[in-house]
Fold each of these.
Amino acid sequence: MSVILVVSPHLGVRETFSRLLQLQDHDVDSVASTVTALLRLKLQPIDLLILDQDCDDLKGSSVEDLATWYLKKDPSNRVIVMCGGRQATTRHTHIMKPVTPSELLAKVRRVVWEQGCENLPEEEQ
């Protein structure tokens, strides 16, 4: 089981992602801003941070800044940035919106597997 933090200003995104990931036996927490996420990350280790690029306009703390800080803190940390529009505007692992449940779960499985938290099913190797 992985510990995952979902960061999105959209309540529906936070609730949907949390439910989907909990059904896959992940321990999930969610917050609405990068500022709150930073505080949360300083208090408890997280295996995977999922960031919505829509958080960029909140209180001057950008998604890129948070992702970069988190990865520098410990290179084994993992981040997925949800990007809108036609192309990714991040240098981090990303997933394009709108995200289907199967896309989200496949991306999370792959990233968590890269971290060594669980075995990757054969069909995804």
Note: Residues 119-125 have pLDDT under 50 and may be disordered.
Amino acid sequence: MDLRRLNEKLRVLELISEMLVFLVIFIYLPYKCVNIPRDDKRLEKCALEKSLVFSGVVSAIVADTANPPAKIIYLTNGTKAYSYSEIWEKVGVNDSIVKIEGHLIYKIYYKEGLQRELIIDHDVFCR
């Protein structure tokens, strides 16, 4: 009698585990793969930021009146380095900044105190 009940309980547990596997494989995973949220504005912003290229020493950082969340980083070589990310929070006047076209990696070389390099990779936000 006890062996029969034990077999019934085991069979119920097997059915439950099979149902869970079915739900994960055939419902949850396809849903996650198909319904990836896309933020069009974010992707446009990422494409625009990837197209930027500049390098030089920062002479000033000012608000962009045409695009309030953005800032314009002026370099001593006369270049306007538009930044749509929060790079201006990390860089200051007299720091060096490098942005390579096609990438979302900013290299900042600080002039204050010990010279050190800060690499900011914004590519994570564009995937």
Note: The chain has two helices and six strands.
